[in-house]
Amino acid sequence: MELRGIIKGSGYLCGCQSCNYSKALNAYEFERHAGCKTKHPNNHIYFENGKTIYQIVQELRSTPESMLFDAIQTVTGSPINQKAFRTWKESFQAATRELQRIYGKEELNL
C-alpha cells in the first residue's frame, strides 16, 4: 500500500486518514500505518524519484563533506524546504566545528 508522508526532523509526518500529516512517526510506525511491517522499513520508504531512504543514504556515504549539502539536494529528487535545510546545515556545521575544536581537525573523521 502506498502512504504519502513528509520527512520532518528524524521522522515522517504521516498522511494516513487518522494522522492527516499532524503526527510525526519513526520509520517502523510509518510503515505500520501503510499496512506493512518489515525489519528494514527504510528499504521500503521511497522518495518521489523512486529511490528508497536506504539507497539515498548509501549514495551520500561516499560524498565528500565539502559536497554533501549540494548532493543532498540533488540525490533526493524531491523539493526541499530551504528554510529547514539551511537551519539543519548551520547546525551540522556548528557541531562539526565543535568536534574539530574538541578532538582536533586531523583526528576527526565524519
Automatic annotation (TrEMBL):
Residues 5-60 form the Tify domain. This is Tify domain-containing protein. The keyword Nucleus applies. The lineage of its organism: Eukaryota, Viridiplantae, Streptophyta, Embryophyta, Tracheophyta. It comes from the Eukaryota. One of its GO terms (cellular component) is nucleus. InterPro entries: RNase_T2_His_AS_2, TDBD. It is found in: Nucleus. Keywords: Nucleus. One of its GO terms (biological process) is positive regulation of transcription by RNA polymerase II. One of its GO terms (molecular function) is RNA polymerase II transcription regulatory region sequence-specific DNA binding.
